[in-house]
Amino acid sequence: MHSPPLPGTIGVLASGGLDSCILVGHLLEQGRSVQPFYVRTGVVWQAAEESGIRRFLAAIAAEKLAPLVTLELPLADVYEGHWSLTGADTPGADTPDEAVYLPGRNALLLVKAAVWCQRYGIGELAMAPLGSSPFDDASEAFFREFSSALNRGSPSRVSLLRPFGELHKRQVMHLGRELPLELSFSCIAPVRGRGDIDLHCGTCNKCAERRAAFRAAELEDRTLYADAMR
Ligand SMILES: [Zn+2]
After folding, report:
1. Is the pLDDT of residue 19 over 80?
2. pTM of the model
3. Cα of 9 from ligand 1 centre, angstroms
């Protein structure tokens, strides 16, 4: 059994990307106790992403930051042939946001973390979708309705929250400007660099979004991009 969470703990689904890393840091700054979750779905960038979130959390270690909980949710059966598992035809820098939609993503990620929260008495579980997200499963209505469904039949309630739901990328980047954002990981086609360090490819849809986020916020981008090293 896991040790009981501190009173008032909020769970955060942390994918290792900029927004969820900033959400963890921001909640800690607000004095909250945070229980981060990483869900292992088997996507090709999982190892790079998980090591990114672990390095980021180690760098911001705090008394109120609980050790990362990893949850296993292999999707090979339902995602068979999908680019997220094969690594083939990964959406490139010139593709729209919609190109990186992962079927059922938020419902899948939320369900196991929500059950964990219900079991251990954590009353709030947050994700970091932004107001600009084009995906309906990032909407306020989805979070409200999915909360309601998940709490049916459970003696312990968990509210699903999207604290950055009304914010734009630039505002979120500013909330995180003091955090070690170079340790976060956004790439969907990582490149193995020297010393077995996973580099951002620099050319995929998510790398383009990441570079644009640093530019828009006028923050220095210390990310190691493989395409900038050639
Ligand atoms: Zn990339």
Report:
1. yes
2. 0.94
3. 33
Asked whether residue 46 is assigned to any structural domain, the reply reads yes
Tell me how far the alpha carbon of residue 222 lies from the centroid of ligand 1, in angstroms: 15
198 within a domain of the structure (yes/no) = no
In a domain, 3, yes or no: no
Which pLDDT band, with edges at 50, 70 and 90, does 148 fall under?
very high
Instruction: Give residue 150 CA to ligand 1 midpoint distance, Å.
Output: 34
The model's pLDDT over 42-53, given as tens digits with 9 standing for 90+, comes to: 998 999 999 999
Q: Quote the CA–CA distance of 99 and 87 in Å, as a whole number.
A: 14
**Residue 20: CATH number of its domain:** 3.40.50.620
The rounded Å distance from CA 200 to ligand 1 centre is 5
Q: Ligand 1 mean position to 75 CA, how many Å? A: 21
- Domain hosting 77: range is 10-88+105-185
CA 93 to centroid of ligand 1, rounded, Å:
8
CA of 86 to the centre of ligand 1 (A): 15
**Token reading at 11:** 């769970």
Total domains in the fold of the chain? 1
| Full 3-state SS string of 56-99 | HHHHCCCCCECCCEEEECCCCCCCCCCHHHHCCCCCECCCCHHH
